[in-house]
């Protein structure tokens, strides 16, 4: 786990408790005062035995603290304690040599991940390689203040989540310091089994769930409570259709690991999380702390969805399979005779990204190799989706077929009459044609390009996309 950057500043402090005669409270050294365990090996002679790294025996994690224990080693005069930083370097924590075979660290932030390391020092002052603790995440009370910019349009709504377990978690309790609920001042929504619910009808503000919030004025949300158990996957029950979820942890969770913990079965779930950014939805590579995401359960019944406590590392995920398959990383699955385009639409206020069409030959699933469902946009949001003629209610964000053919695309909603469709080639193949059914204009969709059109009103605009192999 990589410790959060905002907890590694030069002002952060830990208390390290040694035996009473060595009780010391130390501050982290400046960022340039880094040490590399195991490098103090000068003047080694043949009579010297280089110290072995300590054998860690236990790491006991408590509220804002942890205790690290290790076996006593012969011919060792003491030990050093380090914090492993995000760049894989080590920061020394002890100002005096640790003489005992344990150390207790206090002043840690609950819910925040740390990695510590212990080294041994022999009589010659030589230092061993480091023994690392692995992930250390204290559990207990914590809090967070979230700044929410004010606004009044649909693009000013924010998706957030509360990772803390509060004793009283109704919206009235969580937002008790806000003005009396008034839709002219602020609004709060959840998405439940039977649709959207507003403030008074929301059952709870709970970890693993996401919520829409709009405030007319700049505001702060104060969230507090006990952190969840970070050493086992967190379970969220998903109802059929669209859900709003959020990370129950105070660190980013890698989405690829979420997919691996929830292998879809025959339409069970879509392996894509959608975040709302800059007035539009995008696929997310990770679940970030305090942010909400849309997620689709394609099963006809509730399913238990696991969010594992696995830290995020950048992984390019452009698409995921649905039934009988797992997620796809990058575009490696597009083999010979395959091709794919990524499309987006923007009107200057709202946008819609990560729409993919293309071909993977010999797919097994009823003409479609891959598809994802379009997130449920609000009427003001701009939406670009694929569908079938006469079936605009069947909205797909991505539609990968098993053979060349014809795609039916629709741009709807938004605030402005001028809209630009942009595309990027993910895997080259036959040159697709974009056909505007209103102007009859045809545009070759090669490489990276765009097409801008003006609407007389905000009614949906329909397009046909054909590969040249299938041009009528």
Structure description:
This protein has about 475 residues and is mainly beta. The chain has 3 domains: about 130 residues, Immunoglobulins (Immunoglobulin-like); about 180 residues, no CATH class; about 140 residues, no CATH class. The protein is about 0% helix and about 45% strand. It contains 2 helices and 36 strands. Strands 26, 27, 28, 29, 30, 31, 32, 33, 34, 35 and 36 form an 11-stranded mixed β-sheet that branches. Strand 19 and strand 20 form a beta hairpin. It is globular, with a radius of gyration of 27 Å.
Globular, elongated, flat, extended or rod-shaped: what is the shape?
A: globular
Task: Give the CA-CA distance, first to last residue.
Answer: 55 Å
Category by helix and strand content: mainly beta
| Major sheet characteristics | 11 strands, mixed
What's the total helix number? 2
Our count of domains comes out at 3
Number of strands: 36
Low-pLDDT runs of 5+ residues are 1-14, 18-35, 41-47, 314-332
Approximately how much helix is present in the residues? under 10%
Mean pLDDT: 82
Rounded Rg: 27 Å
Beta-strand residue percentage: 35-45%
């Amino acid at each position: 786990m990589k410790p959060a950057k905002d907890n590694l500043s030069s002002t952060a402090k830990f208390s390290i408790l040694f035996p009473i005669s060595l009780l010391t409270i130390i501050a982290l050294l400046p960022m340039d005062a880094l040490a590399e365990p195991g490098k103090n090996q000068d003047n080694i002679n043949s009579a010297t035995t280089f110290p072995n790294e300590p054998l860690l025996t236990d790491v006991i994690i408590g509220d804002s603290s942890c205790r690290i224990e290790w076996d006593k080693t012969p011919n060792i005069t003491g030990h050093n304690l380090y914090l492993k930083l995000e760049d894989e370097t080590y920061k020394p924590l002890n100002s005096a040599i640790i003489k005992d075979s344990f150390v207790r660290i206090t002043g840690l932030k609950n819910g925040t991940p740390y990695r510590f390391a212990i080294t041994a020092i022999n009589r010659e002052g030589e230092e061993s390689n480091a023994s690392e603790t692995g992930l250390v995440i204290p559990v207990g009370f914590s809090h967070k203040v979230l700044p929410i910019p004010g606004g009044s349009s649909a693009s000013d709504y924010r998706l957030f989540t509360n990772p803390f377990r509060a004793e009283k978690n109704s919206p009235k309790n969580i937002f008790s310091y806000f003005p009396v609920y008034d839709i002219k001042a602020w609004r709060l929504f959840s998405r439940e089994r039977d649709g959207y619910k507003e403030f008074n009808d929301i059952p709870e503000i709970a970890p693993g769930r996401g919520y829409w919030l709009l405030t007319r004025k700049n505001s702060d949300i104060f969230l507090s409570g006990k952190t969840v158990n970070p050493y086992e996957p967190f379970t969220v029950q998903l109802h059929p259709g669209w859900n709003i979820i959020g990370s129950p942890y105070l660190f980013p969770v890698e989405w690829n690991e979420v997919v691996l913990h929830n292998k879809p079965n025959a339409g069970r779930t879509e392996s894509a999380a959608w975040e709302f950014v800059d007035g539009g939805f995008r696929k997310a590579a990770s679940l970030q702390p305090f942010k909400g995401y849309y997620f689709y359960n394609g099963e006809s019944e509730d399913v238990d969805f696991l969010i594992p406590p696995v830290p995020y590392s950048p992984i390019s995920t452009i698409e995921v399979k649905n039934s009988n398959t797992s997620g796809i990383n990058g575009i490696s699955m597009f083999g010979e005779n395959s091709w794919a385009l990524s499309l987006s639409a923007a009107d200057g206020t709202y946008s819609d990204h990560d729409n993919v069409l293309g071909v993977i030959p010999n797919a097994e699933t009823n003409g479609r190799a891959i598809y994802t469902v379009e997130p449920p946009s609000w009427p003001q949001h701009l939406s670009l989706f694929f569908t079938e003629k006469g079936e605009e209610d069947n909205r797909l964000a991505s539609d990968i077929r098993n053979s060349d053919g014809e795609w039916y695309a629709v741009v709807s909603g938004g605030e402005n009459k001028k809209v630009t469709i942009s595309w990027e080639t993910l895997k080259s193949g036959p040159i697709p044609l974009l056909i505007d059914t209103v102007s009859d204009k045809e545009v070759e969709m090669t490489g990276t390009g765009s097409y801008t059109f003006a609407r007389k009103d905000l009614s949906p605009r329909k397009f046909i996309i054909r590969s040249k192999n299938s041009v009528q």
